[in-house]
Design brief:
Layout lengths: L1 H44 L4 H8 L3 H8 L10
Amino acid sequence: MLATKCAMLSGMNRDDEHRAAVRAAREVYDNARAELFAAIKAALAAGVGISAIGRDADFSREYIARIRDGKGPRETRN
């Protein structure tokens, strides 16, 4: 019985470690995404073409145009 409880606790610790890693990775992703969209908006404001921005960001021209027009992801809207 004690061995089973120890194994369960050990598994929970590993689960907690994995969940913490996922949360940390999500934070890095969110920050990188915010930085990317800020750079896209700055490039648009500077007059860089949507095709060039699309190539650099690996997004379609249509998606860059949606960001330009305020119809992109919620966090990129003004």
